[in-house]
Write a structure and sequence with these properties.
Structural class: alpha+beta
Largest sheet: 2 strands, antiparallel
Strand order of the largest sheet: 1-2
Shape: elongated
Radius of gyration: 22 Å
Order of helices and strands: HEEH
Number of strands: 2
Helix content: 40-55%
């Protein structure tokens, strides 16, 4: 989570994942069991249930649909405002060439 940039101080703490996993297990989306690891430490191993897989697929379909809507909006704005940069390295709005600067 940290390497992907999802963990921000005050927003999402690494420990929060265990609360989420416990909640998912309570809703029967996951199962877990304690196992002894190679180091001898006991750890909890999670497995997704059939209901969890269905929920995951439903969520992924929703994300894909929102992605399509977002892409359509970007295409629309590129057509309407063809001088507005929409590349991944997009300039900040304050640097837009048509933005009037206040003194």
């Amino acid at each position: 989570m940290e390497t992907r940039g999802f963990v921000e101080s005050g927003r999402f703490e690494t420990g929060s994942i265990y609360t989420i996993l416990n909640r998912m297990e309570k809703h029967e989306l996951l199962t877990s069991k304690k196992m002894k690891g190679d180091s001898g430490r006991v750890r909890r191993v999670y497995n997704i249930t059939e209901e969890g897989e269905k929920t995951l697929v439903k969520g992924l379909r929703s994300i894909i649909q929102w992605k399509k809507v977002t892409e359509e909006l970007v295409d629309y704005y590129e057509e309407q405002f063809n001088d507005y940069e929409t590349t991944p390295d997009m300039k900040h709005e304050d640097n837009h060439p048509n933005k009037k600067k206040l003194m």
